[in-house]
Design brief:
The protein has about 100 residues and is an alpha+beta fold. The chain starts with about 25 loop residues before the first helix and ends in a 5-residue tail after the last helix. The longest helix has 22 residues, at about 70-95. It has helices spanning about 25-35, 70-95; strands at about 45-50, 55-65. The chain has a two-stranded antiparallel sheet.
Length: about 100
């Protein structure tokens, strides 16, 4: 039985989104690795969302780590790794025009 509501996930826009670049930053981070801006295999990638009216980004989802959330020592190591990856992400983002 397909009982999907006709208006489910329907989005109305003003048409301004056609001027925006894709929110996915995989190409930019791959280029940063290729050009030696960040270490190869950095595993930094992701997307942006939520733009202000002035064009400022409010949300970046770029650093992904996994581990044992119940092990405080492991979480401490991941926190250090995460901070290093954030620094790599910032270096790469500085190479993107705009």
């Amino acid at each position: 039985d397909d009982s999907t509501c006709e208006n489910e996930w329907k989005q109305e826009t003003q048409g301004e989104e056609g001027k925006l670049r894709t929110p996915y930053l995989e190409r930019e981070f791959s280029a940063a690795e290729r050009d030696g801006v960040i270490p190869k295999g950095s595993n930094v990638s992701g997307s942006w969302s939520t733009l202000t009216e002035d064009g400022e980004l409010l949300n970046l989802n770029l650093v992904h780590l996994s581990g044992d959330a119940l092990d405080p020592w492991h979480m401490s190591r991941l926190a250090v790794q995460g901070r290093a990856k954030v620094q790599d992400a910032l270096k790469a983002l500085r190479t993107i025009p705009g």
